[in-house]
Design goal:
six-stranded mixed sheet; alpha/beta; two-stranded antiparallel sheet
Length: 235
Amino acid sequence: MSDGKRHILALIPARSGSKRVKNKNIRILGEKPLIAYTIEAARKSRLVTRVIVSTDSEKIAGIAEKFGAEVPFLRPRRLAGKDSTEYEFHLHALDWLRDHEGYVPDLIVNLYPTTPFRKSSSIDKAIRMILAHPRADSLRSVRLCSEHPFKMWKARGVFLKPFVRTANQRAHTLSYHLLPRVFIQNASIYITRPAVVRKYRSTIGKNVLFFEMNERESLDINTSLDFVTAEGMLA
């Protein structure tokens, strides 16, 4: 950039139409709305230079602004449905910011508001990781799988078929410590480059860094029971 400073955008997606938990993104957890935890973590980051919430809801927008995030636009409802994708709201944000402000970030740090316990230091660590790997298209935060895919099955009539086929049929009966380490993305810190979004029509690309996180920071709230778990963790 001309000023020598990287422009790192924290993008927090918060649509209004949660099906499993009504108004999930602004439901109170502890003493503040769920989305506030993510906004605060992003604002405390030493590397994030801008924090924007992408939402279709004026109510969510007002709460986001109260806690210090920008909401320069409202996301169109057609991009805020249950089948809307990361690619769609990333592209919308990039297009709007370019067309209305001439602003193009170097990195987009996607932070879902459903993972309230991620630390700002983890955000910075993930950003430093992708900056250190210029060949990386993106970064995905993950946690170690607690349920291994070798233990999963598909139903075929009255019989079970392995979800993952392997030459070693004993793999389905082995102890976890004998199986390959497998990770699952945790909806906490996803980073991508704007050029990747446009080139691949995807937020992932081809070369994906993995950023491992612990179970606490990986907690992803999607159900009422998850809220109970989070309340217990806060206590």
